[in-house]
Specification:
Blueprint: E1 9-19, E2 24-35, E3 40-44, H1 51-59, E4 66-71, E5 74-75, E6 83-86, H2 98-103, H3 110-123, H4 139-151, E7 157-161, H5 169-186, E8 189-193, H6 197-203, E9 206-210, E10 217-222, H7 234-251
Parallel strand pairs: 3-8, 3-9, 6-7, 7-8
Antiparallel strand pairs: 1-2, 1-4, 4-5, 9-10
């Protein structure tokens, strides 16, 4: 077998069919692309096109599919600690403090664990809030805690399913900057599903544009802009305009 660097994901001609007694629905049809180590990839497409289904295949939750999804050259067939997940809602356990949420399931000595938690809270700008409960902090802070909980397990890939979708507009704007800083600091491979094209251009190395169901890859854009990015720049607006145009060519009129 060939040698693979850690954190490389290959999606090779993947198709997924949902079957009931009455009918079959093809949700994904021949999707292929590669995610390189340390990349930030955004996946965009219309509602119901199969974005989250594709993410669930990468998670290992959905197992019945055609083609191959390979992490470091090994086919994904079940969930694993090599993949962290952040959902639209933070899913922190409300009866545990933030630091207890981070510690849940980790097996190490108490001194080492406390150091890891302290370092992770610093990375996501939550120093001093470890003993707070989720109800005692803002939505953006809860979502940063959710990202910290995923990262402290040192996954090779972090999967983000509309991680900022439940936030108000101002908090979402600020959290995009926070997520950018977290990614730049950790350089963990990240794959994010989003409906927000500007968000995708702001954060991503590449953007995968999907057609409507059955989901196929329409285009892949490489975003050659330095971080941190200036949303007001001519170059940023050109990327946004081009991605919007490609999106509309694939799926028709769409409200951005």
């Amino acid at each position: 077998m060939a040698e693979y660097a850690s954190g490389i994901l290959e999606i090779k001609n993947v198709s997924k069919v949902f079957r009931t007694k009455e009918k079959e629905v093809k949700a994904i049809d021949g999707v292929s692309f590669t995610v390189n180590r340390g990349e930030f990839i955004s996946i965009i497409g219309p509602s119901g096109c199969g974005k989250t289904t594709l993410l669930r295949l990468i998670m290992g939750i959905e197992k019945d599919y055609e083609g191959d999804i390979l992490l470091n050259g090994k086919r994904i067939e079940k969930p694993g600690i090599d993949r962290g997940v952040v959902f639209q809602d933070h899913r922190l356990l409300p009866w545990l403090t933030i630091e207890q949420n981070l510690a849940l399931g980790l097996k190490t000595n108490k001194k080492q664990l406390n150091m890891e938690i302290e370092n992770m809270l610093k990375k996501v700008d939550l120093t001093g809030f470890g003993k707070s409960y989720p109800r005692q902090v803002s939505g953006g802070m809860s979502q940063r805690a959710s990202i910290a909980r995923a990262l402290i397990r040192k996954p090779e890939i972090l999967l983000l399913d509309e991680p900022l979708g439940a936030l108000d507009a101002l908090t979402r704007f600020n959290m995009q900057g926070e997520l950018e800083k977290i990614w730049l600091y950790n350089k963990t491979t990240m794959i994010m599903v989003t409906h927000d094209i500007e968000e995708a251009v702001y954060l991503s190395d590449r953007i995968v544009v999907l057609d409507s169901r059955p989901c196929k890859v329409s285009r892949i854009f490489k975003i050659n802009l330095p971080h941190p990015r200036d949303r007001r720049s001519k170059e940023f607006e050109e990327y946004r305009t081009n991605v919007v145009a490609a999106f509309r060519d694939s799926v028709g009129d769409y409200v951005i």
